[in-house]
Amino acid sequence: MKKYIGCDLGGTNMRAAIVDVETGTVLHHISVPTRAREGHEAVMKRMADLCLQLIQSADMQKKDIGGIGIGVPGALDLEKGETVFLPNLPGNWPHVPLQARIKELTGLPTALLNDVRAITNGEWRFGAGRGVDSLAVFAIGTGIGGGLVMNGHLHLGIGGTAGELGHITIDYNGPVCGCGNQGCLEAVASGPAIAAMGLKAITQGLSTRIAEISENDLNRVTAKLIAQAAREGDEIARDIYGRAGFYLGIAAANICVTVGPRRIIIGGGVSRAGDLLLEPIRRTLREHVTVMPVEQVEVVLSQLGDNAGVIGVACWAALQS
Ligand SMILES: [Zn+2]
User: Fold this and answer.
1) Side-chain half-sphere exposure of 316, counting CA atoms within 13 A
2) 26 Cα–ligand 1 center, Å
3) Residues near 239 by Cβ (< 8 Å), separated by ≥ 6?
4) Distance between Cα 24 and ligand 1 center (Å)
5) What is the mean pLDDT of the chain?
6) Which of 5, 17, 57, 186 is the most exposed, fewest CB within 10 Å of its CB?
7) 265 C-alpha vs ligand 1 centroid, how far in Å?
């Protein structure tokens, strides 16, 4: 069985890994800075070089590799193999033929997938989603990405755009999201949104450990610091996670009645808060879902960490070849 390369195009670094897609094992991986400011052509050349260098450094040959999968942070048109909008990379990459260019530069079949759909595929095949035919992933960090598996298939929708669970509208009068809509889940429950709730508590003069731990330096207030305060028993910090978890629970409730997933997987850096976030999500689901057996929906943490994306997108490339 040939091995596949999973490549993760990040705003800061790009990483490529040789993956055994039968076991979900990362055999070898390397990474380099993306240097996105140099423009998409330079980045694509660097990515192709990275993949070829990976094969060499793993003592393998091109003929041992079945193809390359690339996880991309943004909107794609999978039918055309193009990037549509990458909000975290300079220039936004409108209509860049990423798939054809990497194939041309490496001589290997190439497939694209949104980065969180790649994580979804990885967790489904080899992580927290093993053994179920329907699930939803919320990846909570600077933004909120998502992905859906329905009836044993990664659900893609038009051009691969389906599964953007961070842009479910939670409050149609709410704060403006990076996407331009008002009150998206991402605008009220992402890492920066949680940090903003902590900042507000401090500026309102509330008595909270968040102020002590950050030494009243507003720049140091992050979702991680608020989780620390909550674990130390701070009620305000607990309430902040309770509120973020409530919003996530409302989004998850809408997914439950729409999709009937067996599992809801919470990943991304903010998920390190663990039960601070999972408990209010579970509570909200019990309180708001009445028309399906919500007690059967498991709410769990992701398992594959940083490898989920490269494993998932390598499996995706294998499926396309
Ligand atoms: Zn949005």
Assistant:
1) 33
2) 33
3) none
4) 32
5) 97
6) 57
7) 20
